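User: Can you help me understand a structure? I only have the sequence.
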Amino acid sequence: MDPSLDTWNFSSPLISLWINRFYIYLGFAFGISLWICFQIVIRKQLFIFKGKNSKDESVPKATRDLMTNGYISLQKKDILVSGVKIFYGSQTGTAKGFAASLAEAVTSLGLPVAVINLQEYDPDDHLVEEVTSKNVCAFVVATYTDGRPTESAEWFCKWLEEASSDFRFGKTYLKGMRYAVFGLGNSAYANHFNKVGKNVDKWLWMLGAHRVVARGEGDCDVVKSKHGSIEADFRVWKTKFISRLQALRKGERKPCGGNCKKGQCESSAEEEPFESTSEEESGTEDHQNLNSVVDVEDLGKIMNCVKKEKREKELQEEKSTLVRNAMKGEASERRAMITPALREALTKQGYQLIGSHSGVKLCRWTKSMLRGRGGCYKHTFYGIESHRCMETTPSLACANKCVFCWRHHTNPVGTEWRWKMDQPEMILKEAIENHQNMIKQFKGVPGVREDRFEEGMMVKHCALSLVGEPIMYPEINRFLKLLHECKISSFLVTNAQFPVEIRNLKPVTQLYVSVDASTKDSLKKIDRPLFKDFWQRFLNSLKALAAKQQRTVYRLTLVKAWNVDELQAYAELVSLGNPDFIEVKGVTYCGESSASSLTMANVPWHEEVVHFVRELVALIPNYEIACEHEHSNCLLIAHTRFKIDGEWWTWIDYNRFQELVQEYEDSGGLTNFSAKDYVAKTPLWALFGASERGFDPKDTRYQRKNKSKDISGC
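Assistant: Let's start by predicting it. Here is the structure, written out as tokens:
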């Protein structure tokens, strides 16, 4: 052995380490493994500890403070809701009734409640008190004409609007106040539907108040109402409000999972942050907060759950869409125009309701002529036998809400037919039967003439002017044809908002168009139409009337201080429609109504109506005053083509009309006829200037004792 090599092998430690390097590596690896295992154990323990802390934090602070040594100390409970204040702004009394109903429901919970008329409330002095009062404030507010608040809520809304945009109040002025809003409106007025309710909700939110339940929106339009009527809409919202009130008393802070910002759920898609929908109340209690610490192995389960729920939601929405599309064409068939509430209101007014959208009522002039006390102005102007006239309508709905509506707006409104539709044969049959039954009630009544009673049982005329807009009825032409087949003349009145229907209308005995104003602004003010393009529709209706060959009439209703100073504009409208006749009548005051500001001061005297007519005739060539009916405060202006050889022929030969209309039907509409083909001579007593002032001398004037005023027809 080489000695130098042996010395090198045992004297060098580096060589020894090199030779045993494998064992050294193995030792290092073992040590690192132990350190890693130790770190994993430590981190896991720390994670469990944090998880317990997060669970402890989920317990309300009040409860944690009460927990001592495994038991809860009995301490005095905090009052979370001290009471409810219900504010209402009402015009017709509906909102007031809803407020009373809500108060009754709140009282059943054992909570103090106050019902406050906004007209008697000063928000400048008292509203800020609700920030610390622990009350919940409910606002039940109606939307009136043109999206404006009702008179009782006008000041409150004005103050709230100004405060919400005044930097001196700020965005936290009402922070701490809790509120809820239910609005009343009519979706037929699409641009202004529930505008007041939306604004009150918005302004309160802008001032920092907290919405406790989604805004409710009641809809008077039974077709578009989500629950079938405004009463049903309110009941649904009231149930939600009471449920939320109970939750607040238990200390539940939010109806959602805590993901709301400024009263708005992040998950809900809204155009503006103050808007509230039912999604706000849907809740997310069943979801875990993804911002909290979650085990990686549980994350997959959560994501699968979310995806599954999303698929189910999409499937449900798809099914709902299919159902809505399938029912879209049948929607109008499912709902009747006459709701139970409307049926009750109209029945109290003396209507005999027919099917789901028609009605008949006995005119006071029918009763008057049965007793021989005189007929209506149509008897004077056109020779109608008032005791044989049936006043009816195949459509109780209307496209206007006129200030002088003699039904006080109890009828529904709409711009198109969306209701269940009855057949014209059934409507006419039941209308005649109901009319005859009402006539029968006069048998044996003192003063009723036997001959007129017998004649009254045989309907000869039909005035389609009871209420609503008859021309809206889709089968109006079939209905008119049935009338003529029964030898019943037709007097149809339309509000000049359906020009296409006027053009398509088959011949009627006499077609009326209501011309309640002569300018766009005054028409909007008086008729309060639903259509956005109401003025163009009005003008087009007059043009369509000019194309008619049978008798046409403008019907002007004079409302003092509203439309009596527009003579030149009226003259221009006359030249547009070129009517055969123009009836000018003073408005009839039908009593006080919360839906209209009309008073007796708006009713012109008969002398004032005569003065207006004289001035109007001076502006329209080829027209003269023909007849007068003083009892109805009404005059007739006629075109001079009905003045034959110096004598007026404004009356109607009804038998001749029936012959002409039968020829028209038999020829399929090829054989037409004109208004002059069925005229009859006007009697002298009916003419303007006659001493009878339009009262038929065959009848007897009736006056109450000690009364100088003639009340014929009353």
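Now, to help you interpret it: The radius of gyration is 39 Å. The longest strand covers residues 135-142. Let me know which part you'd like to focus on.
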